[in-house]
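From the methods appendix. Each design record in this collection lists the tokenized structure first, followed by the designed amino acid sequence. Records were kept in a plain field format so they could be parsed without special tools. The example shown here is representative of the layout used throughout.

RECORD:
FOLD TOKENS (438 positions):
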């Protein structure tokens, strides 16, 4: 069986083998060559960008210790050596490998396997500082924390999206949050004593990160009910405001995912935006006037940009940070943003999905460009909108979707034939993540 797994950690064009799996250097994170933009271009480092001259020791600050922040920090440290400072700031002390949260929910992973201390960055020459960002002074180039300020010459924002179950009345009390470790572990505990009944997966609002996650959750949990011998007296349903699964990827992929749900007897209700969850009656009310009953609720919470990026003028109220689609530069000099905190419009009017694979690829691009600027060279790296994701189906099988989201006029995304090899590939990604980055 021939399995290819794309890894951004490998140099472009190289391949290695691991237990029969072929690992290839990423085609989208680090392109071999790109046109060199003009140094004065506002898309490089913001309007009026000036290169630092002389023997100045650059202070590079990264807000966020998730995928984008960790990848950028390691790449910058490797590119620049020890002559410059790289600092990562995060209010959390642990880096969480979020792709495996659904495996915690279905009982196939222990929660303690999914996180590592961000302080490990210190061993790689990166300073890690615990702190909650209170604000950004973009004119004075300072990040205000709850215990002091951090000055910067270059700033990368990778704080992710905040999870806001409080934005839907009754949601937090009525169910389990699929996107937190406590929520996934709690759902696993609930399932272990679940006698059968109606299990609902709810997408509370759009947009949300990892577009495949609610559908993966429904299939993994359905498999769990079968394994416990209670599927025959249970129902599984998905409610979402989306018109179809993963709509930005196109109708063909949406139909394929919907077919996966149908084949497992999972009911699917698109176009259902929830307005309230009522814990006592175990019901969900929707804008359509429909009411859904549940015995066990797993939900994807509403997402929002952190308040400090809105207050700094980087994002509109209720919106996301605006960046150049190729360089990820914001309109502010020497400030970039990557990952879930950004909002990148596509040619068809939709937005680039929020997903770890994009955060990783974007972080690679920004790290290369910041390193070039520090060395007084012209930045050349660009993000091409390419990415991929696994679609876990339960029973040790998964699909693998890959494509170009910057394609015109619509993204071109294809789903590989589902099978065990893609499930193994995701397990390999999980196994290699912490050794590669932390």
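DESIGN:
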């Amino acid at each position: 069986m021939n399995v290819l797994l794309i890894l951004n950690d490998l140099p472009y064009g190289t391949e290695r083998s691991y237990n029969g799996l072929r690992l290839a250097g990423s085609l989208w994170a680090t392109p071999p060559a790109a046109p060199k933009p003009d140094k004065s271009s506002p898309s490089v480092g913001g309007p009026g960008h000036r290169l630092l001259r002389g023997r100045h020791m650059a202070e590079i600050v990264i807000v966020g210790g998730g995928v984008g922040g960790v990848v950028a920090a390691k790449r910058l440290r490797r590119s620049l050596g020890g002559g410059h400072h790289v600092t990562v700031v995060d209010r959390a002390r642990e880096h969480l490998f979020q792709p495996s949260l659904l495996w915690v929910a279905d009982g196939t992973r222990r929660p303690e396997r999914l996180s590592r201390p961000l302080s490990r960055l210190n061993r790689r020459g990166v300073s890690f500082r615990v702190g909650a960002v209170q604000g950004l002074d973009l004119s004075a180039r300072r990040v205000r924390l709850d215990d002091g300020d951090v000055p910067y010459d270059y700033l990368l924002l990778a704080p992710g999206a905040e999870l806001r179950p409080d934005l839907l009345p009754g949601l937090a009390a009525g169910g389990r949050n699929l996107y937190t470790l406590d929520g996934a572990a709690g759902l696993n505990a609930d399932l272990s004593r679940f006698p059968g009944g109606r299990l609902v997966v709810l997408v509370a609002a759009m947009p949300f990160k990892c577009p495949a996650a609610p559908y993966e959750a429904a299939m993994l949990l359905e498999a769990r009910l079968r394994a416990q011998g209670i599927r025959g007296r249970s129902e599984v349903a998905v409610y979402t405001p989306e018109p179809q699964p993963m709509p930005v990827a196109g109708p063909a992929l949406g139909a394929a995912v919907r077919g996966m749900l149908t084949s497992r007897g999972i009911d699917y209700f698109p176009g259902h935006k929830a307005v309230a969850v009522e814990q006592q009656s175990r019901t969900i009310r929707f804008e359509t006037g429909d009411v859904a009953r549940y015995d066990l609720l797993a939900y994807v919470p509403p997402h929002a940009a952190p308040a400090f990026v809105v207050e700094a003028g980087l994002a509109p109220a209720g919106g996301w940070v605006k960046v150049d689609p190729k360089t990820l530069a914001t309109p502010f000099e020497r400030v970039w943003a990557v990952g879930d905190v950004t909002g990148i419009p596509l040619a068809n009017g939709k937005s680039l999905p929020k997903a770890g694979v994009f955060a990783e690829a974007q972080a690679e691009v920004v790290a290369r460009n910041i390193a070039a600027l520090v060395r007084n060279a012209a930045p050349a790296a660009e993000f091409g909108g390419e990415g991929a994701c696994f679609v876990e189906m339960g029973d040790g099988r998964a699909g693998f979707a890959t494509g170009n989201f910057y394609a015109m006029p619509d993204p071109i995304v294809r789903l590989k034939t589902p099978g065990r090899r893609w499930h193994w590939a995701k397990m390999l990604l999980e196994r290699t993540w912490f050794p590669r980055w932390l």
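APPENDIX NOTE: The chain has two domains: 38-162+311-380, 164-303.
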